[in-house]
């Protein structure tokens, strides 16, 4: 079976993330790899106030990850994420194969804006 590309938004407990940002990020990456995934991009999205309290927390840290994984491994991956006390919520969505390169480039900061592309393509006067 071919691996699909997925993106996952993690809503992390801000207190636990702020105490050990590297450890929490490494734990997310280890969880993906543990279930046979290959990480394409993984980064902090933002920290913000929540619309309603979750587990007594009013703030959450959002983490964005793009990864390849076999579809049949997602059930175990979702179960592991649900049991992790650092992850308050998570959402996994399948990425259309035509968009993978663009989304990963944007997440890693390698995407060019349309203006930069147009300036490079324009002949020098």
Please tell me about this protein's structure.
The protein is globular, with a radius of gyration of 17 Å. The chain is 37% helix and 38% strand. The model has no long low-confidence stretch (mean pLDDT 87). The longest helix has 14 residues, at 21-34. The chain has a single domain (4-109), classed as Ribosomal protein S6/Translation elongation factor EF1B (Alpha-Beta Plaits, 2-Layer Sandwich), CATH 3.30.70.60. The protein has 5 helices and 4 strands; from the N terminus they run βααββαβαα. The termini are far apart. It has a 4-stranded antiparallel β-sheet, with helices on both faces. By secondary structure, the chain is α+β, with helices and mostly antiparallel strands.
CATH superfamily: Ribosomal protein S6/Translation elongation factor EF1B
CATH topology: Alpha-Beta Plaits
CATH architecture field: 2-Layer Sandwich
Question: Structural class, from helix and strand content?
Answer: alpha+beta
């Amino acid at each position: 079976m071919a691996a699909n590309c997925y993106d996952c938004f993690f809503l992390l407990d801000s207190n636990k993330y702020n105490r050990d940002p590297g450890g929490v990020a490494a734990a997310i990456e280890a969880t993906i790899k543990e279930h046979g995934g290959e990480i394409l991009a993984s980064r902090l999205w933002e920290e913000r106030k929540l619309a309603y309290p979750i587990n007594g927390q009013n703030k959450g840290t959002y983490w964005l990850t793009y990864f390849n994984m076999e579809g049949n491994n997602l059930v175990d991956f979702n179960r592991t994420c649900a049991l992790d006390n650092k992850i308050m919520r998570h959402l996994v969505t399948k990425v259309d194969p035509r968009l993978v390169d663009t989304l990963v480039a944007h997440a890693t900061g390698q995407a060019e804006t349309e203006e930069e592309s147009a300036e490079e393509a324009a002949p020098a006067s």
